[in-house]
Structure formats: C-alpha cells, structure tokens
Amino acid sequence: MSDIEAPLFAPIPRDDLPQRIARQLADAVTAGRLRPGERLSESAAAREMGVSRAPVREAARLLESAGLLVSRPNRGFFVRSVSATDLDAVYELRICIEAEAAARLARTGAASALPRLAAQIERMRALADAGAHVEQVDADLAFHRALCAACGNARLLGVFDQIVWEMRLGLVLIGRLYDDAHLIAETHLPVLAALRAGDPAAAAAAIRFHIGAAREAVVDRFRALEGTTA
Amino acid sequence: MSDIEAPLFAPIPRDDLPQRIARQLADAVTAGRLRPGERLSESAAAREMGVSRAPVREAARLLESAGLLVSRPNRGFFVRSVSATDLDAVYELRICIEAEAAARLARTGAASALPRLAAQIERMRALADAGAHVEQVDADLAFHRALCAACGNARLLGVFDQIVWEMRLGLVLIGRLYDDAHLIAETHLPVLAALRAGDPAAAAAAIRFHIGAAREAVVDRFRALEGTTA
DNA sequence: CGCCTGTCGGCTGTCGACACTTTGACGCTT
DNA sequence: AAGCGTCAAAGTGTCGACAGCCGACAGGCG
C-alpha cells in the first residue's frame, strides 16, 4: 500500500497508561455511562482507576484532540454535546473531505483498497440483519475511514479522525439510524462502483450524494429528537 | 450584533499560564530559535521560564493540537518538520476546505466579510512593497482564515487552524515566497470579485485556481530546497 | 417571599520529587 | 578497527500535596 521500506517487526505495545485510560473513558461514553454534556471528574476517574491524575489528564487531552471531550478552564473536561447544527456542519465537512478522497482514490487506482471497502459494506449488511445498530454505525464509519485512509493524503484521514467521534455521538444518540437499516448498506454501493470504474468525477458525485442523503436524514431526525427533549 | 442583554463588563483575562507559555514557544519557533525537527526539552523550558513542567506540558499539548509540535513517547516534543509531500497534502486539503468555504460564503452573502478580506489584501500589498515577507505570509494566511471564519461552518475554520502552522513553517522556510511578492496579493482579487458577485461556483473555482497555483509554486520551490539541504 | 451575600466542599491548576527510559560515551572483546 | 556491553547523565512519566477557583447551600436583608 504505502511504499515504506520494511514492515519486519511490529512495535512493542508499550504500557502507555494514558492511551489505556483514554480507551476506558471512551468506552464509558459509548456505553452510556458518560453522556454528552456531562462532566468528567479527573480526580474521581483517577481514584476509581487507581492511578494519578496526571495520566488521566493526558488521556483527556488525547480525547479532546479526538473531538470526544471539550475542556473549559478551571472546570475540567466535558463530554462533547452535539447539536443538530454541529452535526450539519460536520456532514458538510465530511462531504468535501470524502469527495476529494474518493476522487483521488479513483484517480490513483483503488484496486488494493476495494476489498476492504467491500468487506465493510458486507459487514454493514450482516449487522443490519442482526439488528445491531451500534455496531452497524461502526462499520459505516469504518467504510468511510478506510476511504480516507486509502486516498493517500494523510491529512484527510486526520480530519476524518477528528470528527468521527462527533459522528458516533450523534448517530448513537439517534438510536435506530434509518427507518430501513438495510438501505444504508446498499447506498454505499454506487461509491464502490465508481471507484472500481476508476472514474474520479463519478466517485466524488456518488459520495456527495450518499453523504448528502445521510446528512438530510440524520439531521432531520436529530432536530426532531432535540425538539422532544429540549 | 448579538442580542445578549448587557455587555457592561469585559471578562477578565485570566492568567492562563499554558497559553502564555504556548505563545512563547511558538514565538521561539517563528524567530528561528527552535527549528523544525528540533527537540523541545520541557524541563529546560520550564527551568528557563521559571515555572513547573506541568503548564509547559499543557502548552506543548496545545501546540500539538495546533499542529506545531509532535510528541514521541518517552522522548518528548519535537517541532514539526515539514516535507514537500506534507506541504502538498496540506495544500490539497486547503483546496477542498476553502473551495467549500468560498462557495458557502458566496451563497449566503459575503457582504459583512468583504471589508475584512479586502483589508488583508491591501495589507499584503503594503507588506510586499516593504519587502516584509514573513509578515506578508501572515497577512496571506489571515485572508484565508477570514474566509474560513466567515463561511459559517465552524469545523472548516477548525481544520484550517490545524494546518495553518504547517503552512507557516513551510512558507517561512522557503524564505522569499514567490519571485514576485506583489503578484501574490493580486491573485487574491478574483476570489474577492466572485464573492462580491455572489457566485458560488465562480468563488470555488477562483479559490481552487488561486491555491492550486500557490501549491505548485511553493511545493516546487520546497522540493528544490530539500534537494540542496538533504 | 425573593434576591443577594458569606461560607463550605470539591475540584482543577501548579508544584516539587522519584522511578524508569533513553541516549551518548567509554572501555572491552573479537 | 568494528561491534557489543556497561555506565552515567538527562529527560520524561507518574505521583502525592497544596493553593486558588468554581458551584452549591444556607442565612440575612429588603
């Protein structure tokens, strides 16, 4: 894939306390134990995990860079609370990022990336059958992440990784993603077809259409959700 | 502007030690005392500034989020070293970000933002006359940042802020930006004209052309620079 | 009864200290 | 002479502790 010299050995997984803590924190959010807008007490978290506050702080900074947390001076970290307006902005950003990624990928030849992309669609189908909507969200995002990863521009992937948490938060908050969970898997197919054909313009148009449709559906549903709770 | 009740008092500028430290560190980089690829010893910095390592660490994390520093486990922080490939990727990202921003701005009406944009172009002209190329780079980036800020999508601005340091590093490394410093100011004008006309497609095309031209010139020059030093 | 003020608990921001890792240099072996 | 093992210095990762700040609650005044 990339032309790095020799992947002879994998790096040893160092202890990396902050990263393990960050994973726990993120899991707490996905599991619903920490809800959007809620405060994350670093002292309490440190106490419960049996570590000092320093690595917890480091982990929180990591998750802040990832977009899951936001920090307020002298008040600590809060789980990012997503609004419909935020989600709409994120979708717009995704559209222009991923359209570029798709065009690039189609231009440079997507052969090596196609299997992975197709696999994620297949996974989405299976998870839709199983009715596992949270995992389906993961598969959906994994497809789009793979697209950004394969396009050859590392910065595009970096941007995607920075908004992926916000997407996740929004999508799991909605609950069931679409009225028809199976439809979402199928709407990825035109993108794949355009990539396979090596047509940059078609690939960009396909992803624009795909994300645009999702944007409309998700933001509408989210607005309705906000109307009931707020 | 906003319909908040009473702006009687301005908020007191809290000490915010990390931010002041971050500014010093950033200044050290722009002044050339810390060069790309060089290591930033947080203990030494803390000693020299007369503070503990904790706020220095915090400041470094801030600058890492801003893209100025990168951290390596157990080895601390390093000033980001930009390559021609990196710069090319950043330019590509900028093109799709700013094209979207320009189109949005043209669509929603750019009247309120036009004076600020025009002012930056004027500043570029003046600084080109004065031969102050570092400040001209700042004015150039300020123009593009204002574009992203005015478009109404906060995430676009966030992405721009994350790559602006890499741009700065690359541009100041080149030294003289173009063969003709005056030309760069003028090439911004078509963007402004399209915005004033309220033509989204033209605005996007103008910014694509403008950044694309800069991309080619800068990356070529940077490649030549790399060939001589590496 | 409602608003403001004083107090209190908890928390973050910052600090100095210690252990482990990294790194560069020196000396030894082949 | 080149390479490996050892060692010391420097620096980061982590820890516990203290000061200042924030939010909440109770009490006083209009």
Detailed description of the structure:
The structure is a homodimer of 230-residue chains. The model of chain A has no long low-confidence stretch (mean pLDDT 90). In chain A, strand 2 and strand 3 form a beta hairpin. Chain A has 2 domains: 17-79, Orthogonal Bundle (Arc Repressor Mutant, subunit A); 84-229, GntR ligand-binding domain-like (Four Helix Bundle (Hemerythrin (Met), subunit A), Up-down Bundle), CATH 1.20.120.530. The first copy, chain A, has helices at 17-30, 42-49, 53-65, 84-108, 114-130, 133-150, 154-174, 181-186, 189-197, 200-229; strands at residues 39-40, 69-72, 76-79. Chain A has a 3-stranded antiparallel beta sheet with strand order 1-3-2. Chain A has 10 helices and 3 strands; from the N terminus they run αβααββααααααα. The first copy, chain A, is 70% helix and 4% strand. The first copy, chain A, is mostly helical and 230 residues long. The interface between A and B is medium-sized, with 24 and 25 residues. The structure holds a DNA duplex (30 and 30 nucleotides).
